[in-house]
Design goal:
The protein has eight helices and twelve strands. The protein is of the alpha+beta class and 313 residues long. A seven-stranded mixed sheet has the order 1-2-3-4-5-7-6, with helices on both faces. The protein is elongated, with a radius of gyration of 25 Å. The termini are far apart.
């Protein structure tokens, strides 16, 4: 099962599903036909506010969820009867909630507790923290507003939580790297090479002495986008810097990781690994930064000068 953004080509499947669930929604007419007649969904798709669950093997749309960042609410949600009980609804709701502001109340209008056909929807809302309920009447029918109270959930800058920002920064004209935005505090360029910049970080992700990253000069979001000559040049320079990093730090092993989940401009992280690091038998936790792995800031500057010396040879 794939959870992805819905596109305009998915809208006919959404209308079909809306027709299927019209009776469950107690809609007096064909809800899908009404949505289709109004060309509904184009704005929602364009704002990245509609998700769909897709069956990998058949390519069928299993379900859809729509939400509003402005209203901080779930606005439409259904899974086709043939695909219920497979976890599609749960995964759609979880993904939609990541794009909303959990620092504020999130609401959804659903069915009252005594409506049997709405029990499954209410169960998945409760699973993801919707508790408070306010009954009301809509089009002469009983409904219920459920609320997920605001929380102090900690979030990173990944596309999982702010896809709008990620999509914008993926474009070269808005890319922080391509437009020379200031680097994060504590970052210092070690060297400018032909295809990349090598940058040191303080205090250092994972509390690893010598943790650094290399940023491609050409704008690319995914590795496969790079022209072959640029890719080969970039990787040669990663190899060159890795060799210097081994010599300067005495690391046992370097882990090379290419993420770009937050900053979409392609870059590679170099994580030096040591006999006494904090991650035996476990992935590196990049969120660990304190206390810094350097004895002092002067030692951090010493590391940078040693790396420059090696790379200039």
């Amino acid at each position: 099962m794939l959870i992805r953004w819905a596109t305009e080509s998915d809208l006919p499947a959404w209308y079909t599903l809306a027709t299927e669930v019209s009776k469950i929604f107690q809609h007096p007419a064909d809800m899908g036909a009404e949505l289709g007649a109004k060309n509904s969904g184009f704005g929602t798709v364009g704002r990245y506010e509609m998700l769909t669950a897709v069956d990998y093997m058949s390519g069928n749309n299993m379900g859809f969820i729509c939400f509003s960042r402005t209203e901080n609410c779930i606005s439409w949600f259904a899974v086709s009867e043939r695909y219920r009980g497979k976890g599609a609804g749960s995964r759609l709701l979880k993904t939609a909630l990541r794009q909303l502001d959990t620092g504020k109340d999130i609401t959804v209008n659903t069915f009252p507790d005594d409506y049997p056909q709405g029990m499954a929807a209410r169960a998945v809302y409760r699973k993801y923290g919707f508790t408070e309920e306010r009954p009301f009447i809509h089009d002469g029918l009983p409904r219920c507003e459920m609320t997920r109270p605001a929380s102090a959930e900690k979030r990173g800058g990944s596309f999982h939580y702010d896809y709008i920002k990620y999509a914008k920064c993926s474009q070269k004209e808005f890319c922080p790297c391509c437009n020379n935005y200031p680097m994060s505090e504590g970052s210092i360029d070690i060297a400018e090479l032909e295809h990349s910049w090598a940058t040191a970080e303080y205090p250092g992700q994972g509390r690893l002495f010598g943790k650094m990253h290399m940023t491609a000069k050409i704008h690319a979001v995914d590795f496969e986008e790079m022209p072959p000559n640029e890719m080969a040049g970039f990787m040669r320079e990663v190899q060159k810097v890795g060799k210097a990093l081994h010599k300067v730090t005495g690391t046992v092993k370097i882990n090379y990781e290419m993420h770009a989940n937050s900053g979409p401009h392609l870059h590679t992280h170099l994580f030096p690994r040591y006999l006494d690091d904090d991650f035996p038998r476990a992935p590196i936790d990049y969120r660990m930064t304190e206390p810094a792995p350097y004895e002092s800031y002067d030692e951090y500057l010493w590391f940078i000068e040693q790396m420059r010396g090696e790379l200039n040879q």
